[in-house]
Amino acid sequence: MQRALPIMLLAMSLIPAGDSPGKLLTSLFGASPLFVAWSRFVLGTLMVLPFLPRGALALLRRPLLWVRAALLAGGITSIQTALQTTDVATVFAAFFVGPLFSYVLAVAFLGERVTPLRSLLIALGFAGVLLVVRPGLGMTPGLAWALAAGLFYGGFLPLSRAVTGLAPPLALIFSQLAIAALLLLPLGLFALPAPSLPLAGLTLASALCSMLGNLLLLYAYRLASATRVAPLVYFQLIAAVLLGWLLFGDLPDGLTWAGLALIIGAGIASARLR
Predict the structure, then answer these.
(1) What's the CA angle centered on 9, arms 239 and 208, to 5 degrees?
(2) How far apart are CA 208 and CA 206, in angstroms?
(3) Do 179 and 60 touch, CB atoms closer than 8 A?
(4) First CA to last CA distance, the chain
(5) pLDDT of residue 139
(6) Which of 96-105, 209-218, 255-264 has the highest mean predicted lDDT (pLDDT)?
(7) Angle at the Cα of 142 from the Cα atoms of 256 and 16, rounded to 5 degrees
(8) How far is CA 179 from CA 50, 60, 71, 175, in A?
(9) Highest mean pLDDT, choosing among 11-15, 199-203, 215-219, 264-268
(10) Closest Cα partner for 171 from 232, 206, 205, 222?
(11) pLDDT score of 274 more than 60
(12) pLDDT in tens, 125-146
């Protein structure tokens, strides 16, 4: 687990770093969330192609990998739709229903070993999410899309653990990117925006950060079980709040900071359990 910790933390920082340029694309340039998601998968596929190991193309014949890629495509499209109208920190807070859902699925269907203490720490992390979201303030379309993204991602995470033994991480990242690009191809082409240099730069940055984050996630899953890695996924929320503050000026309030402290504390404590 000690080897997986820094890899997972970096992966969880890169994933929201990919979504922040996506928010700029939709809010400043009027790009469709469908284009942002599809272009991310297309460019990610092209980045991985020169490094493909032997047998990577054969993975495209496995139905489980198509299900996994479809969940990823749904999650990325949903979160980009949410970011059109809602700030980064709030979107990721609602999105973090996903790790809890992932934890339950990993125990129920993958036979992952679980302890009462680790379950308690997962619950504490989720309580921190509730402190940030404060659901009593009411549901908005942006939050609904963020929750949908979290459920998609919660299904994607245990499937990532289930397929880690099928092929090297580079082959698996190629399969998820290529299949998702194919699934979104008609919608992505229909939503093509007017080209410009800033739009191209943000699109490339979004794709690069997302691809590297998901690649490192696969490496982390090869080093530790899904139930041990799951709490570290909450670090995405910390990174999302920092990026939202730096890029969009969204400064968290006192309750949000309390929730963040609870989330990261519970995640690190759970990761250190043997």
Answers:
(1) 70
(2) 6
(3) yes
(4) 8
(5) 67
(6) 209-218
(7) 60
(8) 17, 7, 11, 6
(9) 199-203
(10) 222
(11) no
(12) 788 777 776 766 556 788 889 8
Which residues contact residue 119 at a Cβ distance below 8 angstroms, ignoring those fewer than 6 apart?
Answer: none
Nearest to 240 by CA among 7, 18, 6, 5: 18
Please state, in angstroms and rounded to a whole number, the distance separating the CA atoms of residues 212 and 15: 8
AA letter at 165: G
Tell me what percent of the residues of the chain surpass a pLDDT of 70: 91
Q: What would the two tokens of residue 254 be? A: 């006192």
State the Cα–Cα distance between residues 42 and 47, nearest whole angstrom: 9
d(CA 10, CA 215): 11
- Could you tell me the two tokens for 76? 């990325």
pLDDT tens track for 93-120? 778 777 778 777 777 776 777 778 878 8
Q: How confident is the model at residue 226 (pLDDT cuts 50, 70, 90)?
A: low
Q: How does DSSP assign the chain, residue by residue?
A: -TTHHHHHHHHHHHHHHHHHHHHHHHHHS---HHHHHHHHHHHHHHHHGGGPPTTTGGGGG-HHHHHHHHHHHHHHHHHHHHHTTS-HHHHHHHHTHHHHHHHHHHHHHS-----HHHHHHHHHHHHHHHHHH-GGG---HHHHHHHHHHHHHHHHHHHHHHTTTTS-HHHHHHHHHHHHHHHTHHHHHHTPPPP-HHHHHHHHHHHHHHHHHHHHHHHHHHHS-HHHHGGGGGHHHHHHHHHHHHHH-----HHHHHHHHHHHHHHHHHHT--
Residue with more model confidence, 165 or 132: 165
